[in-house]
Amino acid sequence: MAFDKDLGATRGIDFVLKTHNLDAIVLPAPWPGYATVPAAIAGYPIVTVPLGFYPDDVTIRSAGPLTVYPAPGVPIGLSFLGTAFSDFNLIGFGFAYEQKTRTRLARKAIPEAIPKTQLKDIVGKRLIKGHAPAVYIYLLKKVLCISGLLSVPIPLDWV
């Protein structure tokens, strides 16, 4: 496990960021796990936003006994990977990308799959009077996890 973390973090993500003087590594996430595995091994944050959608004529493949992937209209992600504790920078990069491209809104899903809360609804607003900043961080991460914009797991009972 220590070897995996060293390989994924010190000699992996951190090495690339430092060598090329980058704030984040940006890569497509065309299927589940493609972009998340390196970050998960290193224990580093990753934010994935919609890049586009598979075309209607995509060849459907099996991704398990009860799952197909890709499939027509399924989102393709764009992932932002960073070093330890770079969560807020990654959220900012993802938010800026989404605001500029509006890709998530380009193809409507079934009504139940469309997030009811957008980032603009909570960023910069006092959510709960008198609560510490940690509560705001938790609530923002919870909204991002629920909406699929943040793939870093957080305990839902943490405050």
What does this structure look like?
The chain is an alpha+beta fold and 159 residues long. It has one domain (2-114). The chain has 4 helices and 5 strands, in the order αβαββββαα. The strands form 2 sheets. It has a 3-stranded antiparallel β-sheet with strand order 1-5-2. The protein has a two-stranded antiparallel ribbon with strand order 3-4. A hairpin with a 2-residue loop joins β3 and β4. α1 (2-19) packs across α2. The longest helix is centred in the first third of the chain and has 18 residues, at 2-19. The mean pLDDT is 77.
Provide key terms for this protein:
4 helices; about 160 residues; 3-stranded antiparallel beta sheet; globular; alpha+beta; two-stranded antiparallel sheet
Describe the secondary-structure layout:
Layout: H1 2-19, E1 25-29, H2 36-42, E2 46-53, E3 62-64, E4 67-68, E5 75-81, H3 87-101, H4 133-147
Antiparallel strand pairs: 1-5, 2-5, 3-4
Outline:
By secondary structure, the protein is of the alpha+beta class.
Shape, per Cα inertia axes: globular
Beta percentage is 15-25%
How many strands, what sense, and barrel or not for the largest sheet? 3 strands, antiparallel
Q: Rg to the nearest angstrom?
A: 17 Å
